[in-house]
Amino acid sequence: MKLHELRELIKLVNQSSIEELEWEKGKERIVIKKSEPAAVSATPLPVQTDEVDQGYQQAAATTETATLAVEKEQETPAPEKTPQLVLSTSVGLFYAQVKVGQTIKADDVIGRCTVDALQLSSDIVSTANGVVAEMLVQDGQLVDYGKPLLVVKPQ
Question: Which Gene3D superfamilies match (predicted)?
Answer without folding.
Answer: 2.40.50.100
